[in-house]
Amino acid sequence: MEKLTFRCLECGQSKELLGNINDIDKEDGLCPMCGSNMELQNTDGLVDISHIINLDCIEKMKENIRILGSSRVWNIIEELPNAKTRIVYRKFFFEAGGIMPEKE
C-alpha cells in the first residue's frame, strides 16, 4: 500500500488515500467538494502545479473584468505584441466569463 494524492481539476482540492493504483474506484477520482474529476499526483513527491497557476490566472482575469469591464480587458489583450501570449490571455479571458465586444 502507498499514499496516493489526488488533486481536483476544477477547484484545486486535494485528498489522500491509502491503497494501490490498481485498486482505485471511479468514486475515488471524484472531488468531495465540487464533484469534478481529480487527477493522481506524482507519487514521488513532485507536484505539478500548472493547473493551480491556471486557476489563479483565471481568478485574476475575473477580477480585471469586474474592475475594467470586458471590452477594456479585451482591447488590452488585443494590443499585446506577441501572438502566443495573446492566445493564452484570450483563453483565460473566455474561461473567466469575459464577453468579446462586437465589431461594428
Please give a structural write-up.
- The protein has a three-stranded antiparallel β-sheet with strand order 2-1-3, with no helix packed on it.
- It is α+β, with helices and mostly antiparallel strands and 104 residues long.
- Helix 1 (50-68) crosses helix 2.
- The chain is elongated.
- A hairpin with a 5-residue loop joins strand 1 (2-8) and strand 2 (14-19).
- It is 39% helix and 15% strand.
- It has two domains: 2-41, no CATH class; 51-95, no CATH class.
- It contains three helices and three strands; from the N terminus they run E-E-E-H-H-H.
List keywords for this structure.
104 residues; alpha+beta; 2 domains; 3-stranded antiparallel beta sheet; 15% strand; elongated
Percent strand equals 15-25%
Structural class: alpha+beta
Separation of termini? 63 Å
Q: How many strands, what sense, and barrel or not for the largest sheet?
A: 3 strands, antiparallel
Order of helices and strands: EEEHHH
Provide a count of the helices.
3
Q: From the alpha-carbon coordinates, what is the Rg to the nearest angstrom?
A: 18 Å
**Overall average pLDDT:** 81
Short description:
Helix content is 39%, strand content 15%. By secondary structure, the chain is an alpha+beta fold.
List the helices and strands and how they pair.
Blueprint: E1 2-8, E2 14-19, E3 38-40, H1 50-68, H2 70-78, H3 83-95
Antiparallel strand pairs: 1-2, 1-3
Helix pairs in contact: 1-2, 2-3
